[in-house]
Amino acid sequence: MNPFLDKLHPYPFEKLAVLTAGVTPPADLKRIAFTIGEPQHAAPQLVLDALRDALEGVSKYPATKGEAPLRQAIADWCARRFGLVQSRLDPERQVLPVNGTREALFAIVQALVDASRPARVVMPNPFYQIYEGAALLAGAQAHYLNCEAEQGFQPDFSQVPAEVWRDTQLVFICSPGNPTGALLSLEQQKKLLQLADEHDFVICADECYSEIYFDEQNPPPGLLQACEESGRHDFSRCLVFHSLSKRSNLPGLRSGFVAGDERLIQAFLKYRTYHGCAMPLHHQVASVAAWQDESHVQANRNFYRAKFDAVLEILKPVMDVQRPDAGFYLWPVTPIDDEVFTRRLLETQNLGVLPGRYLSREVDGHNPAVGRIRIALVAELDECIEGAQRMRRFIEAGC
Predict the structure, then answer these.
(1) Where are the domains of the chain?
(2) Residue ranges of the chain with pLDDT lower than 50?
(3) Which fold has domain 60-293?
(4) CA 1 to chain centre
(5) Where in the numbering of this chain does the Aminotransferase class I/classII large domain appear (predicted)?
């Protein structure tokens, strides 16, 4: 057995299952799940058509590197989306298709961390638990940066002690954040680039929620954009991770990419060649269609805007809840303990949410996510409204 397996924490949904064991929800209320960030909107028809037309690809082994048309489509999308003029990605050497960002975020740590010397992986707190699990299984130590409401749910890199920076090999950032929806500004990302040079670490930017935002004129900035504006045309020390799961409502396609520093991409390609995780050819063809089309993505954002408008109107009078900068989560304060709130909400309203504390760790005696819940507004509008109304009735009744 890998001894590091014993260091892994139970996954949030395992904890939720334990918390709600034995609960019998009202039989007359349909179950509504605000728990898992699994988009429920319809998949784009143009992608389904492309997938169906490419099914003969199942008879061939795919290359780990991916086919040239997909890598080119990804490089072109990055250039359009992040304004890359001087820093355009080389689709041959700086782009690698992956089977969703979860697979890549985990695997990149295994490929890049040198456990023969002290190794730390810095991450926001709360966080996507894959960051932590990847660090622990690679033999590294996780270092958590609390993201508090008072600081806009942002990690404060100025608070990292010198001895931590000394051993840091990789820093995870997530913008828009999961679960907070907070954005790292370009200036914050540029400062992190300077820190990466000063302390010799890699920045892994999880940007899989970047295409769900509210202002069409101001999309969330990304790390590639920060590189472009900093004159960092080789994207050194930088890797970005994107996915079609949220952007295009295709979580089951398992399609994303990692792009950036050529040296790191080529090392990761070598790792993944042995890992055996090449994207199926028909998935690649479907992915090309998705990355080349923006109309379905804009329509998707419109659906989310309508849901946030409706749900916030219902909940704001009874909860401390704010519209996030981007993404599809709400991160409200609960009027009672977040675990008690979650269990009772399911028991009385047949409505599922996730306790905030399951997405965070206690640091210096404090867990920044205690007393909050994560609400995933992934269902259709009518169901989101019904769920918000049930939650309001639950709160107004005294929980």
Answers:
(1) 3-42+296-396, 60-293
(2) none
(3) Aspartate Aminotransferase; domain 2 (3.40.640)
(4) 29
(5) 32-380
